[in-house]
Specification:
transmembrane, single chain, 122 residues, flat, 80% helix, 5 helices, Spermidine export protein MdtJ, mainly alpha
């Protein structure tokens, strides 16, 4: 049914975005558990990270592994940094902001370099 509105590649990218959100949530719970010493945080961390890897594996059906992993890790890094600033009150120095910007620029170039069979057929 979704094929009327979404291509398999678009669905794969949506799944990859969900995997990134799960990675950010799981890693945030890791930080919370490490700081508070509570075991429940580690349970949530494990569940969220397991779901993240599962969703990543589903996205690999249509996105190359190098691109999917780079985007998963890179956007996860940027998202987790934003959460750490917002939730944990951590501060960023200019070098960190520059590094995050360069990482995002690199992700753009890596993603632009990917080709797909359906594009080649067009």
């Amino acid at each position: 049914m979704y094929k009327k509105f979404f291509s398999p590649l678009m669905v794969a990218w949506l799944i990859l975005m969900a995997a990134i959100v799960c990675e950010i949530v799981g890693t945030s719970f890791m930080a919370i558990a490490a700081r508070s010493g509570g075991y429940l945080g580690y349970l949530w961390m494990s569940l969220a990270l397991a779901l993240s890897y599962y969703l990543l594996s589903l996205a690999l059906r249509a996105i190359s592994v190098g691109v999917a992993y780079a985007v998963w890790e890179g956007l996860g890094l940027v998202g987790l940094t934003a959460v750490s600033v917002w939730l944990f009150g951590e501060k960023l120095v200019p070098q960190e902001v520059l590094g995050l910007g360069l990482a995002l620029l690199g992700l753009v170039f890596v993603t632009m370099g990917e080709t797909h069979d359906e594009e080649a057929a067009a």
